Structure formats: structure tokens, C-alpha cells
Amino acid sequence: MSYTYSDMAKMIDHSLLNPTLTESDLDTGCRLALAYDVASVCILPYALKRCAEVLRGSTVKASTTIGFPHGGHTTAIKRAEAERAIADGCEELDMVVNISQVLSGNWDYVRADIKAVIDVAHAAGQKVKVIFENCYLRDEHKIRLCQICSELNADWVKTSTGYGSGGATHDDLKLMRANSAPNVQVKAAGGVRDLDGLLAVRELGVTRCGASRTKDMLDECRRRLNLPAISSPTAATASGY
Question: Which of 5, 45, 145, 193 is the most buried (most CB within 10 A)?
């Protein structure tokens, strides 16, 4: 399989969502994402504004989470979170569906909940990834969610938060790709820990992958492509958070 460094780097949403990350960790993470020129940084909402400032002028997008990690926020709160995120410079919003309502089969609620966030983001020219948390769902739930997301023109369907009982599986990625409209992309999250794993999901049609082991993956990519190593960044300041 042939690929360029950019092919792989632009698959990665560098994840900075662990609640124990310090302000210094978050700042260093943003600068690492810049150095490696990944697709985006997905950061804790309170740190989004600072993240967007650090990334301004680069090709790395600022992203954050909505209704994270359990999806149980009211639709009004998810909408408000989306509006705040857009105001703070967010370009991609990763929202969690209401898992309880999915399992209850309340599809009108689920659709309206997703639509509220997509409407806010798309009105601002930004994009939405809809997180299913597949580890708690049956295949019929996943298929119906893919159909709803296709009808609503979601930008991505995403396997998981990375904080459930399981992450992305190849079977789920195949199912999501097969049941989503061609314009809806697929994102894997949870369980892709090395370059070979990233290459494997790319072969399944995945265009994005949430990763916290970004440096290890892309250092290996550069090694295989005989490219020079990238120096690890350090935090310039944490005072902006």
C-alpha cells in the first residue's frame, strides 16, 4: 500500500480529552499537533479558545466535544455547547448521540438531537462528527444511526468516544461505511494504537482516527518513508488556558 506522510498525518485527530491533562499538557499537545501537521486537535471544551489561537494560520483544525462522553445532555444544552464552541473558534464538533434514547428506540428524539448540533455547525460553515458509542449498541442501532446521519448530511459518523467499554472494531467500521451515504465519512476512535492499525482502518475507508499516540504513529511513518525526524515541541506557556 502506497501512502505519503501527509496522507497519514491528515487522518489523525490528536486527542487531548483526558480529564487529568494539565494546562501545560494541553499547550504542549497543541504544539505537537502543529509540528506533526495532523488533521485536527480535539480538546477539552474549556481549552478550545486557546487551542484555536495556537492553531490559527495552520492547516490543523481546532475541534472539541459536544455532550461528551455519555450523550445524556439535553438537546438544548448540546445546542448551547455547539454555539459556544463555534464562538470559540471550533471548526469540527464531535457530538455524542443520546445513547439511552437510541437503545430505547426513540428515533425522532435521536434525529432531532443530532440535527440541532448539525444545524448550528453547518450554519457557521463548520463540520460535525456524530459519535455512536458502538460498544453499547446492536448492529440495527448502528445502521439506523448511519441512515439518520446520512439524511441529515453529517460530515462523519464515529465509532466511539474512547471512554466506553470498547473502541473501534473492523466489523463496525465496515458496517458504518456500508450503511452511510458516500458523502458521510467514517472516523475510528479507540483501539488504533500504531501505524499498522492506522493503515488497516484506512483500507476500510476510514478518513479520520482519534489518537493520543500521534507522535509514535507519525514518527514510525516518517521512519518508514525515510523522512527526517520531527523535534518534540515544548509548551511555550500555559497562561492562556
Answer: 145
